[in-house]
Write a structure and sequence with these properties.
The structure is a homodimer. Chain A is built from 14 helices and 12 strands. Chain A is an alpha+beta fold and about 425 residues long.
């Protein structure tokens, strides 16, 4: 599956990345500086930040939406919705109402002012009640706008937004091996609810769906039971359902300048259709079924060479510790220690030439009718532009040895507006205002 | 929906129950003693038991299987399996192998002796690795045997067990309103994994399925993200997806004599086909879709009269606090405070004439293709006999006002053997030995 190759893409790709980062090749090879800057902040970066309690509230207001660089919470409920109204006013009102409810719920309050158990005896409560007594639990709610909100596949300008569609917000291209189910792909809108208590995440989505009755309907929904990425240097690296540490080299909240380069839509959109998106980001989701049965039948060696890391410590092959820099030049027994078809080799910023902020979750959705668990990774990535983010990485994974063990069954892309600044602001104001 | 009724079943049913409990009617009405004994232990019962940490191990060996009266853990992975081999020996070996792996995993160890990251480089690991570094997290694994393991629908004695099928182990009868999907019902075997970390529960099921390759295959699988019952007086009562506290009057671990009466198969099976099951219990599962959209559109009054409790405190209607005894005689404004079509009225031991130990979990399984979340309760109940347990309760719920808001979509029943006594014992030894 692997072997010496004088034409290894490592050198070329490294140069591409380093150009983007403005770092010289020597720096990378000598000390892993670029990989380090992307994958792991220094001890200094993390020192000043006290770890919040898992039950605390995450601030809702800010320049960016919470739920992107927020240290990844343990549980996820993600929902994609279709807008069922033709009324722009109704859509705008919903976004205002959603913002108000999200502001309240992320603070640990009921979705509405009346609450779950007060108010008119003969009126429906304005909160469904299952989170009564539960703390904020780190809840974040992140909203995104899909390409079809701007223009339908037939070119219809549904809400007068066609001229404001950012050029990068287009359906993802097809990739070899895709087995996408349209029923669980796409969507006009999305809501990502992350929390350290699944009941809090489910409660948030359920109440936002309730508030949207008559304006939106659920297109698809995905629960994730466990995070598979760290997005902060203060977090341990979790393990995915292949049993490997995942996200060691992920972008992290502490990587300020790298976030500006790779995650946040920046000042260069000024005067363009995407200006409303400045401070926002693009969200890509992929439901990735993991074929755990063949994986579990493969040898430890095969697994490690597929990933490019050791299963125990998570160290890159040929290195000793998880955060040791990936060295694409070391040879062991005449072969490169990190096979060039390994996932780490191909996905690593050094070789993919870019970086994305991953924020995915493991799922088990029952069984598949063929005697197997329907399990995998609900992949979530944030990036400044899907074309130079996920699409570029995924294209580089064309020969990934891991492809044998995964199937992409759902796909979606959304533009996530910037954060809600204050009590008068609302999701999408810059877009609709 | 409700009204004064001279023939209310409360009195009669109370007498039935009290006969079963050997308690006089006066005692109940005066102090709620019987209801109290079933639904809530006294302070004395709970005093001596220090609450274990959610990360601790639950002992695997014992007279009864863990995962029944064990204080309900937060997360569930339940799987039903079909046996694909015709070999009794292979089935017995699997039960031995499962027992060994469960003994290890509940102690926080890898599924096998070699583990996830050691042993032969070119052999598959004997653990899948995603739980490396995670504590035992209260993991319990409970096994059950379905009716089809003993005799197929065609009457075939697959494994020489037909003569040992306990008479109560038969498919559940059909109930009005059932919308069961056979693909997610039944099963030759089941494994219930409960833990306070979902990754630990998923890891346990996944490894037991892996060990069963070639002998069993997954029939259906269900994740539960949050417990909806307390099974110990030391636990807070959780809320279900209707937003109400659930399981206030549940049987609890501290109700020793009631457990012997209602949960554990007892000495009276001596000399019968069910003798091997002494110390075990019957497990009934029902996947109950909750129609949250109409529920969320109903008034607080309607919701409370449907349940029979207040949404805030969980107090029975007409009472003040959650654990106040349910009083089926109090009238408010000329109507009974607890409507006789309310769920609490009909399900309460006083009126159903029996008691079951509920151990269910909330689920959200994506969406239903009609714009709605596919959410609900994965109901689990343990009882000494399904006929006088779940079936009796469910029949009494025929006029339950809650039926408007729920649909049963899957059903299964299993006989759970007694506990594994020691290191030489294994699940089902008394059945197969």
């Amino acid at each position: 599956m692997t072997g010496p190759d004088d034409g290894r893409r490592g050198g070329l790709s490294r140069r591409r990345l380093l150009g983007a980062l403005g770092v010289g090749t020597a720096g990378v090879l000598a000390g892993g500086a670029a990989g380090g800057a992307l994958g792991r902040a220094t001890a200094d970066d993390a020192a000043g930040a006290p770890a919040p309690s898992p039950t605390d509230a995450v601030p809702f207001h800010g320049a960016h939406q919470a739920g992107i660089v927020t240290p990844a919470q343990d549980r996820l409920h993600f929902v994609a919705l279709d807008v069922t109204t033709d009324s722009r006013d109704e859509l705008v009102q919903l976004l205002r109402d959603w913002t108000a409810a999200a502001r309240r719920m992320t603070a640990g309050q009921d979705a509405g002012e009346v609450g779950a158990v007060a108010g008119e005896r003969y009126a429906p409560p304005d909160d469904t009640g299952e989170a009564i007594g539960l703390p904020p639990s780190g809840l974040t709610i992140t909203v995104g706008f899909g390409p079809t909100l701007f223009t339908t596949a037939d070119g219809v300008d549904r809400f007068g937004l066609a001229a404001r569609r950012p050029a990068p917000l287009v359906e993802l291209p097809a990739f070899p091996g895709d087995q996408l189910d349209p029923a669980i792909s796409g969507g006009d809108l999305c809501l990502q609810a992350c929390a350290n208590d699944p009941q809090v995440a489910v409660h948030a989505v359920r109440n936002l769906v309730r508030i949207g009755a008559g304006v939106v309907s659920v297109r698809w929904s995905q629960l994730g039971f466990g995070r598979t990425s760290s997005t902060s240097t203060g977090q341990d690296t979790p393990r995915n359902l292949f049993g490997f540490k995942d996200g060691t080299a992920n972008l992290k909240a502490e990587n300020g300048s790298a976030l500006d380069r790779f995650v946040w839509v920046g000042d260069d959109v000024e005067g363009t259709a995407a200006e409303w998106l400045r401070g926002g980001s693009y969200l890509v989701t992929r439901r990735i079924r993991m074929l755990v049965e063949p994986w579990d039948s493969s040898s430890l060696d095969e697994q490690q060479r597929t990933i490019g890391r050791t299963k125990g410590s998570g160290a890159p092959l040929g290195q000793r510790a998880e955060f040791d820099p990936v060295d694409f030049t070391t040879q062991v027994d005449g072969e490169f220690a990190v096979p060039e078809t390994s996932h780490v080799f191909l996905a690593h910023p050094t070789n993919s030439g870019t970086a994305i902020l991953r924020r995915g979750y493991s799922f088990v959705d029952g069984s598949d009718g063929l005697g197997r668990l329907d399990a995998g990774l609900f992949f979530i990535a944030f990036q400044r532009d899907p074309a130079t983010g996920f699409v570029q990485v995924q294209r580089n994974l064309r020969l990934d040895a891991m492809n044998e063990y995964v199937r992409h069954t759902s796909s979606a892309v959304f533009a996530c507006p910037p954060g809600v600044r204050d009590a008068d602001d609302w999701w999408g104001r810059a877009l609709f205002g």
